[in-house]
Amino acid sequence: MKFFRLLTPLLLTIVAVLCLAPAAWAFCGFYVAKADTKLYNKASQVVIARDEEHTVLTMANDFQGEVKDFAIVVPVPTVLQKEQVHVTEPKIIERLDAFSAPRLVEYFDSDPCAVTDFENRPAAAPRSRAVNEEPEKTSDRSLGVTVEARFNVGEYDIVILSAKESGGLETWLKRNGYKIPRGAKQLLKPYIRSSMKFFVAKVNLDKFEKSGYQFLRPLQISYQSPKFMLPIRLGMINATTEQDLIVYILSPQGQAEITNYRTVKIPSNTNIPLFVKDEFGEFYKSMFQTVYTKEDRKVGFLEYAWDMSSCDPCSADPLTQEELKQAGVFWLDDNSGSNLPASPSFRRPSPKSNVFISRLHVRYTRDKFPEDLIFQQTANSESFQGRYVLQHPFQGELKCQAGREYKQSLPKRFEQEAQTLAKLTNWNIQDIRNKMKLSIGNLTYSWWENLFSWLGLY
Asked: How far is the CA of 23 from the CAs of 27, 124, 162, 172, 414, in angstroms?
């Protein structure tokens, strides 16, 4: 991306000419900014790599506080052994976030008076391509809790539990030094009824200090189950506000969607005023809140869906095969078998090379999302992205008839951009117009004042 930031005005002009035909716009936009998870104060991130009934789940730890107080309880469909649990680097999740984040792009109008030989015009640039401890089984009969496995992975002490009743499980966790929030008993109950196990982790302080890491690394678990779901209810125990969850689903097939709540595409491919370039983060947060409210706060949003081998425009390079493996993708063709999550019951699928990413954004509360998220894979390989366009007017002299018509068309275009922005964000329309006046009024051509008189801005 440094390349784009270093482009000279001359090169910008050249590219604008190459992008004269609207059909070519999709191939030559300039990526400007992205709306990644840094926009949100508390945005949990989960990566799910899944093919058929095989799943690799990576959980980013956004825990803030003393590591000695960290504890995580995750319902899982089966008993996990040590070789099914790994730690990975936060950079992998950061890469997925950067690659799939909603993005702002900009284009530059070409000279409407220029005569272009379309038959001999250079073709649009093609899309870029990138390519051991034995489990210890003990029981506490009085509490109805069974320790199915106990082991250490990296800086974490892991226990796999099964339980007969939620009160006993809550008591066992507290007796064994796990600082779990109040109210866990009721939320644990449905998982116990469905015979799920519990993946419980806390930090081994000695190992954490020796590791030299400043932050807790993401945990990664692999398992085989027909259940394609993500438990979110336990995360609501102490929640006083809405929670943001970003789920990156990696699949060899196509888009993934939520089945027990509607999956809605985020508004996209709209032209918005130029001043949003300096306010893109606030724009996206306002837009998301607006559409989230409009949908009654009970849908999941698709923010990105694309084949991982390409992007258009690219806000970050596609992940390499090595990075995809670190993210849990186990179906890539690799004769060595290195870096693939190990599991006693993990059947290695036939070699494949395709990876499709779906980015789902869920903002949830206890009342609007009473159920855990259930997903399904689809064969839909249609590309989609949250994409917002800045269209710069041509700034040169316009003496031809086409140029005069172009000038006459701009006020209506600017007003449409203002109306679109107001509708997307609920921002005040007059405030938007005033900001547009400041951003475009910097141009040195006097006829812009005449244009804005049409909008009542002068």
From this structure: 9, 9, 58, 63, 22
In a domain, 146, yes or no: yes
Is 275 domain-assigned? no
Confirm whether 15 is domain-assigned: yes
DSSP code at position 352: B
In the block, tokens 């250079």 appear at 122
Q: How far apart are CA 60 and CA 48, in angstroms?
A: 12
The string of pLDDT tens digits covering residues 249-296 is 999 989 999 999 999 999 999 999 999 999 999 999 999 999 999 999
List the domain range (segments joined by +) for residue 228.
2-261+298-391
- Please state, rounded to an integer, the average pLDDT across all residues of the chain: 80
81 or 135, higher pLDDT: 81
Q: Is the pLDDT of residue 20 over 50?
A: no
Please indicate, yes or no, if residue 283 is contained in any of the structural domains. no
10 Å CB burial of residue 26 (0-12, 13-18, 19+) is middle
Whether the Cβ atoms of residue 386 and residue 273 lie closer than 8 Å to each other? no
Tokens of 201: 């982790």
Burial of 195 from C-beta contacts in 10 A (0-12 / 13-18 / 19+): exposed
Structurally, the chain folds into a number of domains equal to 1
Distance CA 21, CA 44 (A): 41
Tell me the whole-structure pTM to 2 decimals: 0.82
